[in-house]
């Protein structure tokens, strides 16, 4: 490595958290985000010394490169999604409770825009709308540069961002509740579900609550979006009868995209009960009640769950 490469690597390392946040917001995939950031480094490293000297804003240049790479990933992902079984949720970023690490992914999820409820809305946008909206509204990339990424005029880039912004406003994902409020709501919910107290479960669910499961057909969860407290209560009651007694009490709390969630490890079936697949649950809370439940059961999206999130972890009090 040349002497000039050392400061370049240091500068890139300092920008990695921002670039990771950009890539994850754009793709909803941890692997794609990390690959995009790494590819941006390779493209930077391949430039000549003269070309690098001509970069006036390194953060802006790298953000644009990451945006272009992610746009390609989003367009190719459309075909993969058509073959996906059931609903698709963004790949969760799971961290232990109380984590204060400086890993780029942990830094990325501190932003409210990476909470699962917001990421789900972003996934409904076209690739062009998502890139334009995220880059401009979240990371202040000028429309001239976004237009170059999209291969359109600045006016069209502005229109893509406007449509993305309008979709987010129409969906109105709830703002991030404090961890204290999340813990209180989740405690009430889990206690009511495990006790089979239908009335108590209903009281903690928002009237417009939805449950979205993600398994790609590799685990048991709802394949269709389930709407309404009555349906979800019956679904949860059925789960308790299907799996061994105490199966769900073996789980523990984790942070899912910066919000409180709950991880339940896999448990083999016995005595006529089904095998319980690993599940990662996270929630959107509005006005002190659960408005959305996100159930990630696709094992391909649970490979990064911290190893200390298994059995025996007490629920927070």
Architecture overview:
The relative contact order is 0.12. Among the domains are: 1-86, Orthogonal Bundle (Rna Polymerase Sigma Factor, Chain: A), CATH 1.10.1740; 179-309, Nuclear Transport Factor 2, Chain: A. The N and C termini lie far apart (52 Å). The chain has helices spanning 5-27, 30-46, 49-53, 58-82, 104-108, 116-122, 127-138, 143-150, 154-171, 179-195, 198-204, 229-242, and strands at 94-95, 205-214, 226-227, 252-256, 259-264, 279-286, 289-296. By secondary structure, it is α+β, with helices and mostly antiparallel strands. The protein has a seven-stranded mixed sheet with strand order 1-4-5-6-7-2-3. Residues 312-317 have low confidence and may be disordered.
Question: Roughly what fraction of the amino acids lie in strands?
Answer: 5-15%
Low-confidence stretches: 312-317
- What is the average of the pLDDT values? 91
Total helical segments: 12
Q: What assembly state would you assign to the polypeptide chains in this entry? A: single chain
Helix content: 40-55%
Please identify the top-level CATH class of the domain at 179-309: Alpha Beta
| Silhouette | elongated
The structure class reads alpha+beta
Q: Which fold does the CATH topology of the domain at 179-309 refer to?
A: Nuclear Transport Factor 2, Chain: A
Biggest sheet details: 7 strands, mixed
Biggest sheet, spatial arrangement of strands: 1-4-5-6-7-2-3
Radius of gyration: 21 Å
Which H/E pattern describes the elements? HHHHEHHHHHHHEEHEEEE
CATH architecture of the domain at 179-309: Roll
């Amino acid at each position: 490595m040349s002497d000039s490469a050392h400061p370049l690597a240091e500068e890139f390392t300092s920008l990695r958290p921002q670039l990771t946040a950009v890539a994850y917001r754009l793709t909803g995939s941890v692997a794609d985000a990390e690959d995009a950031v790494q590819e941006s480094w390779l493209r930077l490293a391949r430039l000549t010394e003269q070309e690098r000297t001509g970069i006036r804003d390194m953060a802006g240049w790298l953000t644009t490169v990451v945006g272009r790479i992610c746009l390609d990933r989003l367009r190719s992902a459309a075909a993969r999604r058509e073959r996906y079984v059931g609903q698709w949720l963004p790949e969760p970023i799971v961290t232990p409770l109380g984590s204060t690490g400086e890993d780029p992914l942990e830094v990325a999820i501190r932003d409210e825009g990476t909470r699962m409820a917001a990421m789900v809305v972003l996934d409904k946008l076209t690739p062009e709308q998502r890139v334009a909206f995220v880059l401009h509204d979240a990371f202040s990339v000028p429309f001239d540069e976004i237009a170059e990424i999209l291969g359109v005029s600045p006016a069209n880039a502005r229109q893509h961002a406007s449509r993305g912004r309008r979709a987010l406003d129409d969906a109105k994902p709830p703002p991030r509740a404090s961890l204290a409020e999340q813990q209180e709501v989740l405690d009430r919910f889990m206690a009511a579900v495990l006790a089979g107290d239908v009335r108590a479960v209903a009281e903690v669910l928002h009237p417009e609550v939805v449950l979205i499961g993600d398994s790609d057909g590799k685990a048991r969860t709802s394949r269709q979006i389930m709407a309404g407290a009555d349906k979800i209560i019956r679904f949860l009651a059925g789960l308790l009868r299907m799996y061994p007694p105490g199966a769900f009490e073996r789980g523990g709390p984790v942070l899912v995209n910066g919000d409180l969630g709950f991880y339940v490890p896999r448990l083999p079936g016995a005595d006529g009960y089904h095998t319980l697949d690993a599940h990662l649950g996270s929630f959107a809370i509005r006005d002190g009640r659960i408005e959305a439940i996100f159930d990630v059961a696709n094992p391909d999206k649970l490979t990064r769950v911290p190893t200390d999130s298994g059995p025996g972890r007490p629920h927070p009090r």
